[in-house]
Specification:
Length: about 300
């Protein structure tokens, strides 16, 4: 079906990322009925901060509970092609763009009829466990030896954001690449948001230190679904720890005009903490306790 914005009447066919961003980023608030109507009957909607919902009715009920009419998502960056995509966002109060709330990322895949078939969304945890996560992963893999087998991947220069993600996570890293392979593809002024940490890593030196800290033997980052997109790409993933399934998450990469990675947002799956449940009730518009200013 051609996409029609629930309020504008626009019948142009957008990319998958534009579709989900238009539906969830409506300036007048989230219309759960319109979003459910744009879904397939068997839609699967994963909220990695809570649980998975299946079917139009369940999605509509979830959206109604999560987003009161005073709340909306402000679209920040969009990626996608005709069938897959995603966008980064922050929560706002309807009619007030001066106060910034909870941040997140949403991935979407459409079916052959252009209906929403699958969504994964992730939002930032209110408790940032970055240093603890690093220590836990290193402890869990303390007895794993680093692989000294020579790399077997073929080095190349990716031409699009989708190609870059495919290259790093399905070609290079699984076949022995080191962090410098990715760092060579990052811009000097890259901004890297990992929501396990309070502040973003800004500039290649900070990002280098962060990326190398998580180059841990026994930890494998496995992409699940990768969206299309020339300038930006959204993808879902799972971490394997000593060969066993570990945390899942969602990421967004954006390239600059030179084809270098200028922006990254990583969001790991976390179980809702008491703080987040309290924030939902005390601040239904924003989902956080205090106003948040935008990051670089």
């Amino acid at each position: 079906m051609p996409f029609s914005s629930p309020r504008s009447g626009n019948t142009a066919t957008p990319s998958a990322g534009e579709l989900i961003a238009s539906l969830l980023g409506d300036a007048e608030g989230i219309d759960s009925g319109a979003i459910a109507a744009a879904c397939s009957e068997a839609v699967v909607w994963e909220d990695i901060a809570s649980r998975t919902y299946q079917g139009r009715a369940a999605v509509a009920e979830m959206l109604n509970a999560k987003f009161p009419r005073c709340s909306r998502l402000a679209v920040e960056r969009v990626a996608g092609n005709a069938t897959t995509g995603g966008f980064t966002w922050r929560r706002e109060a309807v009619g007030d763009a001066t106060v910034y709330g909870l941040r997140g990322t949403t991935y979407v895949r459409l079916d052959e009829d252009n209906n929403i078939a699958y969504v994964r969304e992730g939002s930032e945890p209110l408790f940032k466990a970055g240093p603890i996560t690093e220590a836990v992963l290193k402890a869990a893999t303390a007895n794993v030896d680093r692989d000294t087998t020579p790399p077997t991947y073929t080095a190349r220069t990716p031409t699009t954001a989708q190609d870059l993600v495919e290259y790093l996570w399905r070609e290079a890293y699984p076949n022995g690449a080191k962090p410098d392979v990715a760092l060579d593809l990052f811009a000097a002024d890259v901004v890297y948001e990992d929501f396990n940490y309070d502040a973003p890593f800004v500039g290649k030196p900070q990002v280098k230190e962060f990326v190398e800290a998580f180059d841990i033997p026994g930890i494998d980052f496995v992409p699940l679904e990768i969206s299309g997109g020339d300038a930006a790409c959204c993808f879902t993933w799972r971490v394997k720890v000593n060969g066993r399934d570990g945390p899942e998450g969602i990421s967004f990469y954006e390239l600059d005009d030179a084809g270098k990675v200028s922006y990254v947002r990583d969001i790991p799956a976390v179980a809702p903490a008491p703080l987040q449940r309290a924030a939902k009730w005390l601040s239904p518009k924003l989902g956080v306790f205090t106003p948040r200013r935008p990051t670089p």
